[in-house]
């Protein structure tokens, strides 16, 4: 079985040669290659080269064309601060002053901001791995993108103080996400992961998610499926248990669960959905390979009977992670 | 009558209804209540109820931010124009360290501590360790609070207590919180306390000598 076949089997709860392992290696690929993270997130060719090197080094089952959480907002018009060996941050939010929504620029993925570079990375990676390894693109979820257009604090106040405008902004974000995600699929991604940390129940109540975010996730997922995504992968960090039951309705095929979610409760909430998780990200920095191996083995035992599982971290493996810890994760499934 | 007005204030604060909280505070003042009574029976009562509701499973940023904003607006009615007039139970310094530009968690803790009568010195986000420590030398706080959303600030967090101790600032406690830092242990971060929520940090501060209300 190759990686893509293995993941496909996990998605369908079918037998496979081993549990797939997707280490959430994003910026760590740059550190591993000795490349400045600042260059990694701005140059699609550099990103693709680092991801390919990391794949060769670790031999896991997916590569990521994922820069950071500011790609979309920069393409809309926010100004970023780029620093050496760090992910960029938003210096000036494009919607900070709650300006006229109609003035917001719907970005063209072929020419705005770093979107073309991300598409370039996808093309290179897909050309390199074909249908052997999963090529994952990335879009933000609607709540997270709104947070990146105006800051999370302002977005939360805006939702309460100006609910109609907030909904319009969510709809604008949804259009950006769909356009960018479809472009990624056209460039060769097998799927774009939908990264939506701002919809965590630690940030917004579950009812807020159900009423405002879920309908837009449904639209995003169904559009991606029509555009050729092999499935939809939703990533919401933190204590996501209260909203997990909504995932099937959204059209989610792979559900990430963080270290703070008990595997048993995730399985109970999503009996027919493939789960990926959930080692503590910081453990890859400050724990030992033996600890990672033990934790991973524990997880594999949890899911041995059920299937429908991808061994992974609960969220991004920090860029400064110890490589031997990622190796221990991969080896645990072999 | 005062009791009914006070209950409306408490409920408005818990609901995060800023406009009603401000209106009720004005009404209570107009009815002749001293601001100390409004703080004790209104704001602190609301904070106590909010604290009980904000168990780990129920805690979400939206609700606590709305309540915090309502509390701060009510406080501004009581002490217009001069934050220094707030009754101070001691000083706490807060910061997000250099490279971390996320400050929402820090801002929430600031609101919670301020509402409970602490004087908060906010060093802001992207704050170098040395500036944080210089501020600690100047302000003699009960504690320094560090919020961290990214793991790359951890080496800086580890420096704070050691550097303060080297300067003889051994009585100042160091507490940490935020998505990245709460994955760690107090030993690995070399801090005195790690809070899961802002109220955890409040409770910790209240246990410190000079910090009990």
Automatic annotation (TrEMBL), chain A:
InterPro entries: Methanogen_methyltrans (IPR052024), UROD/MetE-like_sf (IPR038071), Uroporphyrinogen_deCOase (IPR000257)
One Pfam family this sequence matches: URO-D
Extent of the signal sequence: none
Residue span(s) of domain Uroporphyrinogen decarboxylase (URO-D): 4-334
SUPFAM superfamilies per record: UROD/MetE-like
PANTHER family per record: METHYLCOBAMIDE:COM METHYLTRANSFERASE MTBA
Record protein name field: Uroporphyrinogen decarboxylase family protein
From TrEMBL, chain B:
Keywords in alphabetical order: Cobalt, Metal-binding
Gene3D superfamilies: Cobalamin-binding domain (3.40.50.280), Methionine synthase domain (1.10.1240.10)
One Pfam family of this chain: B12-binding_2
The keyword Mitochondrion is assigned to this record: no
Statement: the UniProt record of this protein carries the keyword Transcription: no
Domain called B12-binding: residue spans: 89-213
Stored InterPro entries: Cbl-bd_cap, Cobalamin-bd, Cobalamin-bd_sf, Met_Synthase/Corrinoid, Meth_synthase_dom
Protein name (database record): Cobalamin-dependent protein
């Amino acid at each position: 079985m190759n990686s893509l076949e293995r993941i496909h089997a996990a998605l369908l709860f079918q037998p496979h040669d081993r549990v797939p392992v997707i280490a959430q290696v994003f910026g760590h690929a740059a550190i591993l290659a000795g490349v400045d993270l600042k260059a990694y997130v701005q140059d699609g060719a550099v990103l693709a080269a680092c991801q390919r090197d990391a794949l060769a080094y670790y031999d896991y089952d997916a590569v990521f064309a994922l820069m950071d959480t500011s790609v979309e907002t920069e393409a809309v018009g926010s100004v970023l601060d780029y620093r050496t060996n760090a992910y960029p941050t938003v210096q000036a939010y494009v919607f900070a002053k709650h300006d006229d929504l109609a003035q917001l620029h719907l970005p063209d993925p072929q020419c705005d901001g770093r979107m073309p570079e991300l598409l370039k990375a996808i093309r290179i990676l897909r050309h390199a791995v074909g249908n052997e390894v999963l090529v994952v693109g990335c879009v933000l979820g609607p709540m997270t993108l709104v947070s990146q257009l105006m800051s999370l604090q302002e977005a939360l106040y805006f939702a309460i103080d100006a609910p109609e405008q907030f909904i319009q902004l969510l709809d604008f974000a949804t259009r950006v996400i769909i356009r960018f995600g479809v472009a990624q699929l056209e460039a060769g991604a097998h799927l774009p992961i939908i990264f939506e940390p701002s919809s965590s129940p630690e940030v917004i109540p579950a009812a807020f998610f159900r009423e405002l975010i879920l309908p837009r996730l449904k639209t995003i997922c169904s559009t991606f499926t029509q555009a050729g995504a092999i499935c939809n992968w939703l990533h919401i960090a933190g204590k996501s248990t209260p909203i997990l039951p909504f995932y099937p309705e959204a059209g989610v095929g792979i559900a990430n669960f963080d270290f703070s979610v008990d595997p048993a409760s995730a399985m109970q909430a999503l009996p027919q959905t493939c789960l990926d998780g959930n080692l503590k990200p910081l453990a890859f920095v400050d724990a030992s390979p033996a600890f990672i191996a033990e934790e991973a083995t524990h997880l594999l035992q949890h899911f041995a009977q059920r299937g429908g599982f991808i061994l992974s971290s609960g969220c991004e493996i920090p860029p400064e992670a110890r490589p031997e810890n990622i190796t221990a994760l991969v080896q645990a499934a072999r | 009558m005062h009791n009914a007005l006070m209950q409306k204030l408490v409920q408005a604060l818990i609901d995060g209804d800023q406009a009603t909280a401000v209106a009720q505070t004005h009404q209570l003042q107009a009815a002749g209540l001293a601001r100390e009574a409004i703080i004790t029976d209104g704001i602190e009562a609301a904070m106590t109820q909010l604290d009980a509701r904000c168990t780990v499973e129920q805690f979400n940023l939206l609700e606590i931010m709305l309540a915090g904003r309502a509390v701060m607006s009510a406080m501004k009615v009581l002490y217009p124009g001069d934050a220094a007039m707030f009754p101070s139970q001691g000083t706490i310094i807060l910061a997000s360290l250099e490279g971390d530009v996320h400050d929402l968690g820090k801002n929430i803790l600031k609101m919670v501590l301020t509402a409970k009568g602490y004087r908060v010195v906010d060093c802001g986000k992207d704050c170098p360790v040395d500036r944080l420590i210089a501020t600690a030398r100047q302000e003699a706080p009960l504690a320094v609070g560090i919020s961290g959303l990214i793991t790359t600030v951890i080496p800086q967090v580890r420096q704070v207590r050691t550097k303060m101790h080297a300067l003889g600032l051994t009585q100042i406690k160091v507490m940490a919180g935020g998505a990245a830092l709460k994955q760690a242990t107090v030993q690995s971060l070399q801090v005195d306390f790690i809070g899961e929520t802002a109220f955890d940090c409040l409770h910790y501060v209240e246990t410190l000598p000079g910090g009990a209300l």
